[in-house]
Design a protein that fits this description.
- The chain has eleven helices and nine strands.
- It is an alpha+beta fold.
- The strands form three sheets. It has a five-stranded antiparallel beta sheet, with helices on one face. A two-stranded antiparallel sheet has the order 6-9. It has a two-stranded antiparallel ribbon with strand order 7-8.
- β7 and β8 form a beta hairpin.
- α7 crosses α9.
- The longest helix has 30 residues.
- 38% of the residues are buried.
């Protein structure tokens, strides 16, 4: 059976109607191993997610532990629905075939809905408020049956991600390797940063809550790509959203949105957050996350043969440089990295 016939068959089992004449369109993918196809034409259409059968339960991100017994997308989806977070509806999951029929959310991502910045403040207000509500509800309703509560952003994971940058964003990108003394300094500093970040309280974290993982359908914000959720600090998803490599935001706007989050978090029933320390941690986490992203984009280019993310490396590095300015005690690390990645120079 051809892939198109298999996709149409999946939709037929959902609708009970023939899909033989429905068009099939492969949708643009991101960096994951999954593929997405639209079967039909909106509004009478479905999206079918196709997963490699031998890797359907394997994460595209670094994780610890054994492979989960249940597909992470299904597991985390169930938890988010219980929290009343808008996620795509699952119409059918054919595990042996590695196919899932989903609600068609249209093609409008949060990034596209910004429309050149005309709707910037209103959309970010909503995304920040949604994130604050999600976090408060998750902190008040932890669930050990949800995979996100069984895996953590711990010291080792932060450290691994920093070295992912060192390998791909510093060594491979520059074509040079640090000296033994410089490598020892990097090892020690990365471990210190990882330890500092790992000491923060942890709760449900989407992991990649950014402009391409929020869809806009009929005015609603719909959260997608949540299968790699884990426990991390409150600021992590804010770094993903407000230091997004695909949509650059100025420092004043980011600071304003951090204040909006703090207010929304309290309004949703969470504790009062002290702004100064919250923001200091946000800037340190920005250094870690955006260094990782820069390295990851080069990894995706070299290893997965997808150069589409290379255009986002400069924005990632500009965010790191701005965060270094807010954490002057990291000046030694900045000087060392800038020897190999000049874009990070003060």
């Amino acid at each position: 059976m051809s892939i198109e016939a298999a996709l149409r068959e999946q939709v037929e089992k959902v609708t009970g109607r023939s899909a033989a004449q429905k068009p099939v369109l492969k949708l643009a993918g991101q960096a994951s191993s999954r593929m997405y196809f639209r079967v039909g034409s909106p509004p009478d259409s479905h999206v079918v997610m196709v997963m490699p059968v031998d890797a359907a339960q394997k994460s595209d991100e670094a994780t610890k532990g054994d492979p989960p017994k249940e597909l992470p997308f299904v597991n985390v989806h169930r938890y988010l629905e219980r929290l009343e977070v808008r996620v795509p509806r699952i119409h059918r999951y054919d595990e042996p075939a590695g196919m899932m029929v989903l609600e068609d959310l249209s093609d409008i991502t949060f990034e596209q809905a910004l429309d050149g910045g005309r709707h910037r403040e209103a959309l970010y207000d909503r995304a920040v408020e949604l994130l604050a509500q999600l976090r408060v509800r998750a902190e008040q309703n932890p669930d050990s049956s949800c995979l996100a509560f069984t895996r953590d952003f711990d010291e080792d994971l932060y450290d691994w991600e920093l070295h992912h940058f060192r390998e791909w964003g510093l060594e491979v990108w520059s074509g040079k390797k640090p000296t033994d003394a410089e490598r020892a300094e990097l090892d020690a500093t990365f471990r210190t940063i990882a330890r500092m970040l790992a000491q923060a309280p942890r709760g449900f974290t989407h992991r990649d809550y950014q402009s391409r993982n929020i869809m806009v359908k009929e005015g609603e914000l719909v959260v997608i790509d949540f299968q790699d959720a884990l426990r991390g600090p409150r600021q992590y998803d804010l770094v993903a959203l407000l230091r997004d490599s695909y949509v650059e935001l100025d420092d004043a706007f980011v600071d304003h949105m951090l204040d909006r989050y703090i207010a929304a978090f309290a309004a949703a029933g969470g504790e009062r957050i002290e702004p100064a320390e919250f923001k200091r941690f946000f800037h340190l986490l920005t250094i870690q996350r955006k260094l990782k992203d820069a390295g990851r984009f080069e990894f995706i280019n070299r290893v997965k043969g997808n150069p589409g993310f290379l255009v986002s490396i400069p924005a990632s590095l500009r965010y790191v440089r701005a965060a270094f300015a807010r954490r002057p005690e990291m000046a030694g690390l900045q000087r060392l990295i800038a020897k190999y990645v000049p874009e990070l120079g003060a």
